[in-house]
Amino acid sequence: MKRHILLSLAALVLLLITSTSAFAQRPAPRNTVAPKRTVAKVNVLSPFTLTGSGFVEHAFSSRVSAQLGAFVTGVTISDVKFKGHGFTPEVRYYLSESKIAPAGPYLAGYARIQDFKLTVDDNDANKQYSASYAPVGGGLAVGNQWIFNSGLALDIFFGAGYNSGSLKVNTGTEDDFDLDFLNILGSGFRIRPGLTIGYNF
């Protein structure tokens, strides 16, 4: 757990340094009311995949922000039970000349670090097999975030990326696990849609 948090923070810092060195900070446009710098939000699509996820975003300039997302999940599909968590550090570059981050359309680069524990019950042999799977990856996203006067924030985004990892069997063999199941857990090319609702403060 600590290793994943440290990796997430390291990736976030690296992305932030890269983005802020590439783009000079711009002054706020005239007659523009700046939103507050931080947004806390939840992904309202996550419950459809039996997952809970949330994000905290902070703007470091009028164009650049950094975001850290986290999720937890647990479900049984076929005969495989899995529980897991993950982190998504992200840097966003806001494109609008008339709005200030974290509001408006943006481009984003993100990393994804995940950790899953898998178990399979063999009732005939009265045994339980276990394995772990920790894919890592990254990708790009586009989106738009609206910050309303009430403080309500609405963020819609769509991304695509690639994740890779290998199954580590603790008890049993790889034959006891459906390796096609790893595609569900995030291996290979993945799309990343999202709709979040939150509060700007």
TrEMBL record:
<dbReference type="Pfam" id="PF12099">
    <property type="entry name" value="DUF3575"/>
</dbReference>
<feature type="signal peptide">
    <location>
        <begin position="1"/>
        <end position="24"/>
    </location>
</feature>
<protein>
    <submittedName>
        <fullName>DUF3575 domain-containing protein</fullName>
    </submittedName>
</protein>
<dbReference type="InterPro" id="IPR021958">
    <property type="entry name" value="DUF3575"/>
</dbReference>
<keyword id="KW-0732">Signal</keyword>
